[in-house]
Amino acid sequence: MKKKWALTTAICTVFCLLLCGCAAGDGNTVESREDLIEQGLSKGEGWNIVCELTLDDAIVSGANSADGKAALVLFEPNRGGYSIKSWTIRERDEIIIGGMTVNGDWYDLVWFSGAQTEYAELSYTVDGQTAQPERYETANMEIISRRNSEKEYVLHVEYFDGEGNKFE
Questions:
Q1: What residue ranges do the domains of the chain occupy?
Q2: Residue pLDDT tens, the chain, 168 long
Q3: pTM of this prediction?
Q4: Is 35 helix (H, G, I), strand (E, B) or coil?
Q5: What are the strands, taking DSSP E only, across 16-163?
Q6: What pairing do the DSSP bridges indicate for beta strands 119-126 and 69-78?
C-alpha cells in the first residue's frame, strides 16, 4: 500500500511540474513572457512588461526591471507559443534605439521609458541627405517601429515632454 501511495504521489508531482513548467514558459501571456525575460536576459531582475507591439506574427515587448534596466525583447512563434529571438537592454533613463528582423523585414525600433513624453521625432540621414523628422505620439509610452529597407543610414531620435523639454 505504501509503495502504491508513493508511486501515485510521484506521478502526480511529475505531472504537476510538467504542467506548470509548460504553462509558465509558453510565451502566450504577458506573465509567461515576463518569466521568459527573467530567465533569458543576462542583465536585470524583476522584469515587468509595460507595453507591447505586434509585428506580423511576432511580439515586441518593452520591459522595465526592478534594478533600473529597460529592454526591447522580440518574441517569435515557436511550438504553439513564443520564445525570445533577440533583445536590446539599456539603462532605463536611456533611449533604446535598435532594430530587429521579423520575417525577413528589418524594423527600426525605438523606446524610451525614462520619462513621460508627449512625442518623439525620428530623423533619417541617407546618402548625406537628412529627411524631415517623422513625428510619433508617445503619451502612452508606445514602442515606435518603422520598417526600413535602407542598408546604410543614420537615425537620430529626440523625445519631448509636454513642456518642450528634449530627451536624446
A1: 2-167
A2: 555 544 444 444 434 334 444 444 799 999 999 999 999 998 999 999 999 999 999 999 999 999 999 999 999 999 999 999 999 999 999 999 999 999 899 999 999 998 889 999 999 999 999 999 999 999 999 999 999 999 899 999 999 999 989 998
A3: 0.80
A4: helix
A5: 48-55, 58-64, 69-78, 81-91, 96-102, 105-111, 119-126, 129-130, 134-137, 144-147, 154-160
A6: unpaired
